[in-house]
Design a protein that fits this description.
Number of helices of chain A: 7
Helix content of chain B: over 70%
Strand content of chain B: under 5%
Order of helices and strands of chain A: EEEHEEEHHHEHEHEEH
Distance between the termini of chain A: 36 Å
Strand content of chain A: 15-25%
Number of strands of chain B: 0
Shape of chain A: globular
Oligomer: heterodimer
Radius of gyration of chain B: 23 Å
CATH class of chain B: Mainly Alpha
CATH architecture of chain B: Orthogonal Bundle
Structural class of chain B: mainly alpha
Largest interface: A-B, 27 and 25 residues
CATH superfamily of the domain at 1-76 and 154-164 and 181-246 in chain A: P-loop containing nucleotide triphosphate hydrolases
Largest sheet of chain B: none
Chain lengths: 246, 263
Amino acid sequence: MTPAIEVIGLSKAFGNDAAPVLGAVDLAIGENEFVVLLGRSGCGKTTLLNIIAGLERPSGGSVHVGGNPVTAPGAGKGMVFQQGALFPWLTAQRNIEFAALNRGSGAAEATRLAKELLALVGLAGAEQKYPFELSGGMQQRVAIARALALDPKILLMDEPFGALDEITRNEMQDELLRVWAQRRKTVVFVTHSIWEGLILADRVLVMAARPGRFVLERRIDLPRPRRRSDPLLVGLYDEIWSCLRG
Amino acid sequence: MRGRAAEWLLPLSVLVLFLAAWEYAAAQYWLRPIQFPPPSRLASSFVDLATRGFPQGITLWSHAGTTIGRILLGHALAVALAVPIGIVIGSYPLVERMTSTIVTFCRSVATLSLLPLAIVWFGTGETAKIFLIGYGCFWVMLPATIAAVKLVDPVLIRAARTMDATPGIIFRQVVLPASLPRLLSGARVALGVGFMVIVGAEMIGTIHGLGSLIMEARTFYRTDITMVGMFCIGGFGLLVMFVLARLEAWLVPWQARQEAQQK
């Protein structure tokens, strides 16, 4: 079976920098797998995500999504950004409709989908609210709903909860898992929080910088929701932490 | 409500005190009336101007209407030209590099230094006045537009690209609304420039308009009329700015809220 996402020999260098942002990176992600990319700032994890999204071009190697080479953004690759990147001049509902309309939905269908997705992320009733009227956590819920409106095969998330306080962040992790249980997608999730990775992932990939590369890979077969006190997770935390500390 | 009243009361009492001191100083002949006509004289001149006018028959309101009409026309033409040109320059870094020196040069040329040229090109009629106002507004509006387009948050464009938005949709539905707040504040600053240029532009070839009122009064040593004219330009400038600020808050409500949150 072809993997949902396949990265082959991918490298990225800016200008004449001696150390590339990404070395020759290989990665295969299965259908509906939840993969977390973990690492310090500047280790190339966001660059890797952007290349998979088609927002940046690689210097070498290739990316395939669903067996097709990635040359441009869009086409079923949903993305959630750290700051939400909602359009501040549109209501929550219109933000989601924007995605649906670009996918070729009719106006009525887009509205129906927007309402359905807002309800899915727990924001029924907030249709007419503008982003500035929503808390950071609620904005990210809208951003997730907006990405889902593309009916994407894969969902790329770039530190989506990085700007939230810890309490909201933990809530959003549960929320994301709940939504993901209802709408199975292949997810690539970038974070620099070890616990976030352990709570969410089927597989955690730890990255190191210059050149960006994978230095540790761990499968986590625990059922969700997971408890932070789980001895397996505590052990993994120590292992990843010592790997990151170097 | 008490807080609001106190907010008004303080500057108001300072103003009253200032006018009283002025009146007293003029009554004592500490200030020469030709240089500083007392507030009571200004008030009676104002009534006179508002009813009988100067020169005879052209009231203050007629002058103000002419002036504001000229400013708005010049401003509108400048904005209509500057916005499309600025969008093109702001969208293409190459075009910006080609034009940035010219833009900086032209906006540095003081508008009123063009007055003699404007007369040679357009004569002393309306066209020259509109040209001068338009010139002043244009070179404020153009850099504002370029900046507005360049400062659109790139993550919004990236987000739109991940949602299959075509370049046309990105331009119309992302770049334009995202730059609207800066376009509007640029238009407001440009209008302020229009109010500064107007007096010079009305110095020549007309007896209509607040600028010509001020100049005509000087010829007759009517300092009081010059001052009333000045205050009128200031007052109308304040009024138009206030209306524009309200319009802005109505057109781009998200911007006002974002700024309030950042404070």
